[in-house]
Amino acid sequence: MSTLQAILLGLIQGLTEFLPISSSGHLALGQHLFRVNDPSVLSFDVYVHFGTLISVCVIFWRDILEIIRSTWAALVSWRLREAYRTADHVRLGVAILIGSIPAAVVGLMFRSAIEQAFADPKQVAVNLVLTGLILFLTRLARPGEANKLGIAAGFVVGIAQAVAILPGISRSGTTMSTALFLKFPPVLAARFSFLLSIPVIAGAALLESKNVVTHGMETGFAPVVFGTISAAVTGYIAIKLLLRVMEKGKFSWFAFYCLALGVAGILFI
Question: What is the DSSP letter of 21?
Fold first, then answer.
C-alpha cells in the first residue's frame, strides 16, 4: 500500500465513519478498486478507525470528562444507583458501557469470519443496500423524550452496533436508526452513537497494537500514520456535518446514497 493510497483510504474512512453510509463498506470497496491486497489490511482498517476516534474525542471532550468525573464520584461515594436516576452523564456512561458489550463479544469471537467478509465486495454491496433500507425506514420513527436513554436502550443500540461490524452495514447508521426507533431525540441519537464508538474502536486498536508489536506492520508505518491523520481530520468534518443534518431532520436522505452505491456494486463488481 502506498502512502497516497493510505491517505485516500483514510479520507474515505473519516468521511464515512460518522455519516451513516458505512465506512467499512467504503473501505472494502475502495481497497478493491485500488487493488490493495496486503495481508495486514485489516490492521490498517483498525488504525484509520482510531483516527476517527480522535475526532470524536476532540469534539466531545467535555462530555467524556464529565462522564468520567460524575461516574467516578458516584462510585467512590457508593451512590451509583441514585446518581443513575438523577445525573444525565452517569446514565450516559452506564449506557455506553452496557452498549459496548455486544460488539466486543462479536469482535472477539468472530474475527476470522469478519476478515473473510471484507474480502467479498459483492456481499459488501448487498449490505449497503440493507443499510439504505434501514435508513429509509427511520422516516417512520417519531422522537420522544431524552430520558429514554438507559441500560435497556443502551444494550439494544449496542446490539445494532455489533451487527454493524459487518462491512457495508453502517455503524453510525444502524445505531442512530435504532436510537430513533427507540424514540431518542435526533441530536441525542447522534451524540450517543458517537460516544458509543469510543470503547469499541479503542479496544480494537489496543488488540491490533499487540499483534503489530508481535508480528510487525506489513503495510509499513508511514501509510498507517498518514491514513490515521487523514481519517481524524475528515472525521471531525463529518461529525459537524451530521449533527447539522440531524438537527434539520434529514437523516433518511442518506438512504438514497447507500441504495444507489449498493445496487451499483451488485451490478458492476
Answer: S
